[in-house]
Automatic annotation (TrEMBL):
This is Aldo/keto reductase. Keywords: Oxidoreductase. It comes from the Bacteria. The keyword Oxidoreductase applies. SUPFAM superfamilies: NAD(P)-linked oxidoreductase (SSF51430). GO terms for cellular component: cytosol. InterPro entries: AKR_Detox_Biosynth, NAD(P)_OxRdtase_dom_sf, NADP_OxRdtase_dom. One of its GO terms (molecular function) is oxidoreductase activity. Transmembrane segments: none annotated. CDD domains: AKR_PsAKR. The keyword Oxidoreductase applies. Residues 18-319 form the NADP-dependent oxidoreductase domain.
Amino acid sequence: MDYRNLGASGLRVPVLSFGAGTFGGSGPLFGAWGNTDAEEARRLVDICLEAGVNLFDTADVYSAGASEEVLGQAIHGRRDAVLISTKTALPMGDGPQDWGASRARLIRATEDALRRLGTDYIDLLQLHAFDASTPVEEVLSTLDGLVASGKVRYVGASNFAGWELMKSLAAADRHGYPRYVAHQVYYSLAGRDYEWELMPLGADQGVGALVWSPLAWGRLTGKIRRGQPLPKSSRLHETAQYGPPVDDEKLFDIVEVLATVAAETGRTVPQIAINWLLSRPTVSSVIIGARTEEQLRQNLGAVGWSLSKAQIERLDAVSAVTAPYPYFPYRRQEGFARLNPPIV
């Protein structure tokens, strides 16, 4: 397993990390993803650690805290061997203090996460969404206190717009608060919006990307093909409404090229899709998920080899989309040249 610094921080993370959204799954979304119990989760953690994957990502909102609880049980007795990333800010109830990133909410949410995870510190705490109703100075000063207390080691964001992330970084610099070193984002061959603004921002400001849904909400498994019905076993029957939108014809074109490259390399379609992401600028780690040992081992096979330049170019071309204004006029200007490889 290769390791990369998380953004401009000194924290070294594996290029593949494990998403625990399937742990303790319940409800219409997470129940459809999976309902891995503690015993099954411990086995998946075993496999990850054997492969060098030591970063595990979860969130308080995943199955109303059950994901954190199951992850905590799965890593019991080996806390020093793992890195834990969790997220907060999305609603956990109907009360006025059950959502957002106010000082009261963040402190209570962190204490609740520590209890569920069975640990006394969180390696990476991320804001799951931007809270426009709370001043960024209040958010950052609270995070500063959590870092100073030793309860949190690093802080990050998730699903922020470019202006939201930059506003937070500027305030952190102005007041000497901890900077967000990670941005957990949706990025895939079927969804390259991250490249328009957030990637250049991350490169400029030293914010590493933690990529969620690298297979485009299950669409890049190779099982969804032009002229064929959606497989009965696909989770998209229950979860498509919750995920990012994808143009079907564009998707079919991408999958056809993925299948061709997979045949050339002797790899699977998901492995090709994940490996492509690892070649992109600012990507620190790609979060993979799995309900079974077989799925996990297949996803772990996405590392340890590289696509050829020609194969990457074909994948770039078939997945490329025209950026919206104001990005398309300057996408080929010299400001992007320092990103290696360049944005296409």
